[in-house]
Fold:
Amino acid sequence: MADKQLTIGSTFTAGIWSENPVLRLLLGMCPTLAVTTGAKAALTMGLSVIFVLICSNLVVSLMRNLLKPHLRIMMFTLTIATFVTIADLFLKAYLPEMSAKLGPYIPLIIVNCIIICRAEACASKNGPWISVIDGLAYGIGFTVVLCILASIREVLSTGRIFETVQVMPGGFVPWAGMAMPVGAFVTLGLILGLVNLATKKKA
Amino acid sequence: MEYLEHIVLVFISIVLINNLVFTKFLGCCPYLGVSGRLDMAFGMGLAVTFVTTLAGTLTWLIDHLFLLGTALEVTRYVCFILVIAGAVQLVEMYLRKFFPTLYEAFGIFLPLITTNCVILGLCLFLNLWQVNDILMAVVLSFGAGIGFTMAICIMAGIRENLALADIPECLQGAPITLITAGLLTLAFMGFAGMIK
Structure:
């Protein structure tokens, strides 16, 4: 029992900090950069990725003994595509506004490297229980970074967060560059630099 | 004649103005990961261009001939990814047979073209922009590939020089690449508003 606890704990620290998909592995950059103009969109995106990651990890882990090496990637993508379709239809039905805003970036979860990476590195070697935990941990790691990046960009470009809550004082001049692609690239670059600095100090 | 002019404008627009890498963030993984050497980047770009043209045209045809108007529209993503994976397999087989050195150099990156967002992204955008013309779909697919090649080659050229620059230690590697990418998108915004 103690052994299992340790595994769950270490999976979470790996997913959220030491192997964080965005900060450390540089995976899934395209949604990270594209949907982080607002915190709300980033949160929706993060939750969809968590859902897809958990489901695909579970399914891949259940069929791990049936996989043939050369058809592996194909099976992964097909599994993922199925769950992304479910997530996409769900968003279209219940959050049509958000779905229109995120546009093609929801279906693009299919080719998000994080999900294939976890299917390959964890789910195809481990049992269903630990795979689900792994999916949850890496999904949360991804969502957290997404939300941090989106909050910085949204506050600087509009002065508000979650589209309604005013953060900046009245005389604040919106920084339009932050809403543009350049804001995404440069902010993420600086965040990565800060993380590098923090790890170096600790070591 | 007017039609021809329109086609040329669309091509310029997808390569320079609406470049998928700079404005839509598609294909960032290879853009930031592979672009260390110019010759590799160029080869990668050409492979992606080929696959995009093939996959974009095929998925447009499948979408318009089979999926639209039937109840099978929900299987769109699964169909698209199958077509793309098939096209990548084709390129892989061709390269292994005729350019073994290039094939060796690509290594794992070649099968990973399947998960390149440019390709799936373009197939989805063709649907989203409501492209109703097969020629237009081909031009857009080809242009997207050329745009990607251009972006990744510019990046590789800069990175080759960046290796010699004196960069603060904590910004070395990925962070400085991202910041460079940001400045590049800013430069490419100069093209915005040139057409329409």
